[in-house]
């Protein structure tokens, strides 16, 4: 283990880990005749045993074939700088194989640093090692036929806090990954790269500064043509550190912003047809300055027009997730429609009274048409005006025309 500067312990591969005695255990031949078939020390020291292998990805196994000769010890390991480290249990077996036979060695993950190591049972013998997968793209998770073993083998630990995204990685191969910030618009959508958002790395720790922590602002780790998205997975009740809700009051929208941190929040109207991140000035802002206790702020903004949505985000950091809220103003439309109906009914009553008062004074001849003017912005309003016209025509009688 190592202790980071932030006081967290993480497990990292170390050349000093225990190998349960397998690396140091050497069996002595019990049959004196066996000494005659062992290779000469000089040959053994410089070459080691010969062997061949076959990769069986469907069975997740490497089949090792030993040519005729003495018994050998065979194992799989992960090559690091100083030594080849054994695999984790139960894949850390070391098998004794007779010459002219084969052995199947299962592996947990198909990785570029996966090696095959073979040695004679005699002490102080040279081990022959082959690491054939270093140049295989499949070993880096770029081939779906082999699965994503490389990324499954990485252990991610989330230490994000305040305005920092922090992720510690434990790798099984000595590779240096690149990391950047990306944003997901939905849980099952691709993570879009954000510009100028490269993570700082130090000894397996990846840090991004000036971030509004949110489950959909994520790390994107990459190596070569292969990449993996890892999102913060905090489970604390206080996370995320802020949220927003809304209601309407007359011609205003009231945003209720609850926050546990010192922060500044902004809001602006947006047209979804112009893109999920489009803003319509002006921008309204409010700040939480009361410490770490939960504080609810109210930000009041005037309505723009029907069909618009509002974006709310934390504006005191460089990268922030924008919450998109679309107020339901259908009840306001219904109220306006009712008012329009009452107004038209009143107008109709006035017209009827006026016409009945004038009818006795009218002489014979063709009745003059009635002109009904209106401004209708929707199909429902047009249907309402048509119904009023029919009612007016029936009330007037006498074949009086009503022109809408």
From TrEMBL:
One of its GO terms (molecular function) is interleukin-17 receptor activity. GO terms for cellular component: plasma membrane. It comes from the Eukaryota. This is Interleukin 17 receptor E. One of its GO terms (biological process) is inflammatory response. Keywords: Cell membrane, Glycoprotein, Inflammatory response, Membrane, Receptor, Signal, Transmembrane, Transmembrane helix. The keyword Membrane applies. It comes from Mustela putorius furo (European domestic ferret). It is found in: Cell membrane; Membrane. Pfam families: IL17_R_N (PF15037). InterPro entries: IL-17_rcpt-like (IPR039465), IL-17_rcpt_C/E_N (IPR027841), SEFIR_dom (IPR013568). PROSITE patterns: SEFIR. Residues 367-404 form the SEFIR domain. The chain crosses the membrane at residues 334-355. It is a single-pass membrane protein; Single-pass type I membrane protein. Residues 13-49 are annotated as: Disordered.
């Amino acid at each position: 283990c190592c202790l980071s500067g932030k006081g967290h312990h993480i497990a990292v591969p170390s050349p000093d880990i225990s190998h349960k005695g397998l690396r140091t255990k050497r069996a002595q031949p019990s049959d004196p005749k066996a000494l005659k078939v062992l290779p000469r020390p000089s040959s053994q020291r410089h070459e080691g045993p010969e062997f061949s292998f076959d990769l069986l990805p469907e069975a997740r196994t490497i089949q090792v074939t030993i040519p005729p000769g003495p018994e050998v010890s065979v194992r799989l390991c992960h090559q690091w700088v100083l030594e080849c480290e054994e695999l984790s249990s139960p894949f850390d077996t070391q098998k004794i194989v007779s010459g002219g036979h084969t052995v199947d060695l299962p592996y947990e993950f198909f990785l570029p640093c996966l090696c095959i190591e073979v040695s004679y049972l005699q002490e102080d013998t040279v081990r022959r090692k082959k690491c054939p997968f270093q140049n295989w793209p499949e070993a880096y998770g770029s081939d779906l036929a082999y699965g994503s073993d490389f990324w499954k083998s990485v252990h991610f630990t989330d230490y994000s806090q305040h305005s920092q995204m922090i992720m510690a990685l434990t790798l099984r191969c000595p590779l240096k990954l690149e990391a950047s910030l990306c944003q997901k618009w939905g849980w099952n959508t691709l993570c879009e790269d954000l510009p100028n958002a490269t993570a700082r790395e130090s000894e397996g720790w990846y840090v991004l500064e000036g971030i509004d922590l949110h489950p959909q602002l994520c790390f994107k780790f990459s190596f070569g043509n292969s990449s993996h998205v890892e999102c913060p997975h905090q489970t604390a009740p206080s996370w995320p550190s802020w949220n927003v809700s809304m209601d309407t009051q007359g011609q205003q929208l009231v945003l209720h912003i609850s926050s546990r941190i010192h922060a500044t929040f902004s809001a602006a109207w947006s047209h979804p047809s112009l893109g999920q991140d489009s803003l319509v000035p002006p921008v309204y802002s409010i700040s939480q300055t009361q410490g770490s206790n939960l504080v609810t702020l109210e930000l009041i903004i005037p309505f723009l027009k029907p069909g618009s949505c509002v974006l709310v985000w934390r504006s005191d950091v460089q990268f922030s997730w924008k919450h998109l809220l679309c107020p339901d103003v259908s009840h306001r439309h219904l109220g306006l429609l009712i008012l329009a109906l009452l107004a038209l009914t009143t107008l109709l009553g006035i017209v009827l009274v006026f016409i009945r008062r004038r009818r006795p004074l009218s002489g014979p001849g063709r009745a003059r048409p009635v002109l009904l003017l209106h401004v209708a912005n929707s199909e429902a309003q047009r249907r309402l005006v048509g119904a009023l016209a029919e009612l007016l025509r029936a009330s007037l009688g006498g074949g009086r025309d009503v022109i809408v």
